[in-house]
Amino acid sequence: MDRHGNRWRERDRYHRREERNQNRDRRRHHHDYELDHRRPRGGHGEERSTFRESHRRNRSRSPTDINTLHFGYDASLYPALEPIANFETVAVQPVSHQAPEFNQVSPRNGDKIYPISRPDKGGSLAARHVRLLVNNFPITFNSETIIRHYNVDIKPEMPARHSHPMRLSKATLSQIKEKLFSDNRGQFPLSMTAYDGEKNIFSAIPLPCGTYDVKIFSGEENEDSFRCVITLVNEFNLCKLKDYLAGNLLSIPRDILQGLDVVMKENPVRHMLSIGRQFYPLEYHEEDDLRCGVAAFRGFQHSLKLTSQGLALSLDYSVMAFRKRMPVIDFLKENIRGFSINQFARYRREVEQVLEGVKVTVTHRRTKQKYTVVGLTNDTTRSISFSCESSEGKMKKINLVNYFWEKYKIEIKYKDIPCLDFSKNNKKNYMPMEFCVLVEGQRYPKENLDRDAAFMLKKLSLPPPHIRKKYIYDTIRSNNGPCGDVGQNFGIKVDLNMAKVVGRVIGPPELKLATSNGKVIKIEVDKEKCHWNLMGKSVIDGKPIERWVIVDFSRSDRNQLNYKLFIQKLISRFRNLGIRMEEPLFYQDATMSMFSNVARLTELLEDVNDRACRVGRRRPQFLLCVMSRRDIGYKNLKWICETRVGLVTQCCLSMQANKANDQYLANLALKINAKLGGSNVELFNRFPHIDSKGHVMFLGADVNHPTSRDTRSPSFAAIVGTVNWPAANRYAARVRPQLHRQERIINIGEMCLELVETYAHLNRVRPGKLILFRDGVSESQFDMVLNEELQDLKKAFYKKDYKPTITIVVAQKRHQTRLFPERDIDGGPTGNVPPGTVVDTRVVHPLEFDFYLCSHYGSLGTSKPTHYHVLWDEHKFSSDDLEKLIYSLCFTFARCTKPVSLVTPVYYADLVAYRGRLYHEAVMEHSPSSMAYSSSSMASSSFPSIGSNEDQFCKLHADVENVMFFI
């Protein structure tokens, strides 16, 4: 029996013993490779994240009473509880779609939990069926093929300075590898190998192991020497992958799939620009020129996936803005409006801004070396001199202009402008601007594009389905795509036709609204777009607005608010929607300049709050803040109101407010009513499967990370939870700082428990059922969610003698799967799949419980479904029940009259996590010194010791933490 008292059969013991032997051998040979291939957060890492080592375990039965111990718990966390004995376990084949009643647990690995298996063969609920194409291309492979994995260790022959190892860039490593192969063509055939750009080479044939010396040019006459040590790590037989797909192997052969992933990327790596996991051509289409020295490059990204049909290649279209390969001076003429080389001093500051950090190469000599611009020289080109060694071996001082003439017989044309400064490690290096050319493959931040270029880039990024599908087909069939000779040499063949699947369209739920006299009515949404309108209707529960204030920051601007007209129309629209709104307590004028002055802004808001308390004898319900334009100081306003003063705010632009059309005012009304605790729309019928006795709480969790360029700022975790039942459309929120780029929510148990206690305070009962939707994790991080976050959650609950049943569902938007109607009749007017389209067969995981749901109407570009993956389920959902529940939740988003593309709890959690980021930015700009210690500490200290240090800056005020301030 296992540690929980569960019996297993002799046959199961045999399988476990065989599996242990396989895994032990694999770990011994591949430890280094695993370390080199860890992936960061996000669905874009799907090509490797789908390859985690998961095992299909035995089914078990467990009582569903929430007061008993649930199957899959960690006994070490709850020593006071007695384990449940005498559970029957039944061995099953991995390919079976009959589900265990609860999640699978591995007795051999310390009760490690694995994702739940699919409970059925897919759902059957449908208003109609549609025939779809999915951008998955089935892969066949020769099961007799052996892939050899080699480790390549590259180090410079010169000893490292200060005993610190020299870190080589990927570009240098690839250059060294190419030189090694070109010098030894007979021993290292290029077409039979694939290189991951770092330490791993995969080969279809044996390669000679040993030490090789490689020399590459690093400058005009400089040559660097490197020592390459090649060793065989392991040999992979593709028959193991075949066995897994046939159901004869319990664990995914992850090492094989990682090797195949590198093989499938080898061909585009050799012919295209590689940016992260995406590939772009070396040249752009003329019609994609964005001007300003920038162009849009149309590329793709792809990954390997395990599906019910077998191994598949998923490929999708991608667009990115790059600086064009062009002379630096030409780039300045395009990028800086009005730039003139003859008036350089006038534009010097702008030139430094656009060129700082840019990589260039030189044209006056043959070289592949790249230089990074750190600035401009203080002196002009004709004034720069430097010391160099003469032919007699003596040091002499020479003018830069004369040097180029003597050395290269080149006369410098622009002598009265500065040079580019490439200085590095205290070694000066200046270069005349006219000899410098921008290197290809340099991303251009889209936020720096002008309005026209940004619009054009967005248009290219959102092609309609028929254009996107054509580009995907063109890519998969091109010579530069993933289907090159290298893959074929490894015995891999890709079907050049998209996978076909039959999808189901779920009918939309019926909704509740109210009439003008407050009577509840049932409405049916539009069948095609799933929209509904509020004309002649009222919200289901409008909160009376008696105490509110207008703070007009546009008063001194040209686009100032027409106060009287706006108030008249606003109050009228609110009342038409069933929300009784009184005149504001008072009008407060202000200026936009206050947004950048935190002290003045804080004083203003505190004064407004105090005055409102005197006039209305209670706190104002909300402030309506009118702005003449968008301003980065918006984050200061939110931080002060929501963490310091305790005020709910609603911002609007004066230009839109003056137009005051019905749709705009209705949108304001929906947001304000939700912020004040009202209810805009509700489901007419209860949620499926969980409509029995007891309260249910929906939770959403997400983590917001800093940008890749930010190496110090903390991440922010947010959790939201419903506080009403059965409507389940009002939420409370919690946000906490985390370690930098830490995906695991460190204190998820504490945060969820706070929300549960809030629910209990409002409803006088704790919810007996919790359904948690987790955003932002890739499949490689499922283990973390189940064996760390879930355990922390249960531990926090058990300490309070609280034992709810729990379901955890991951919602992924960062994936590459797209759905295309096979026929016109299967799609809508825009060519997209209809809202409510579900796919849960053929292209989903071969064993686990997942599905794709396109819940929104695709009016722009190509609709992207959300991928839902069930990790833990104590409610025993069927496919139909869970798909219908999630689709219904998408209709409860408070600030619009249509279903959203992402389940509402996750959508809200994303908004709250971003709010945490805004708080942090506001504090850093206001007082960088006060936050410096906190930010640096987060990188080196344990979280508990520094969490409270920053917690004080983002802790929500008690008056707003339990309302939907984030809408």
UniProtKB/TrEMBL annotation:
Q: Name one GO biological process term.
A: defense response to virus
Q: Which GO terms describe its cellular component?
A: ribonucleoprotein complex
Q: Which ranges does the record mark as transmembrane? A: none
Kindly state which keywords UniProt assigns to this record, in alphabetical order.
Repressor, Ribonucleoprotein, RNA-binding, RNA-mediated gene silencing, Transcription, Transcription regulation, Translation regulation
Cross-referenced Pfam families = ArgoL1, ArgoN, PAZ, Piwi
Query: Where is the region Disordered?
Result: 18-66
Q: Which residues form the Piwi domain?
A: 622-921
Identification of the protein by name: Protein argonaute 2
Annotated source species? Eucalyptus globulus
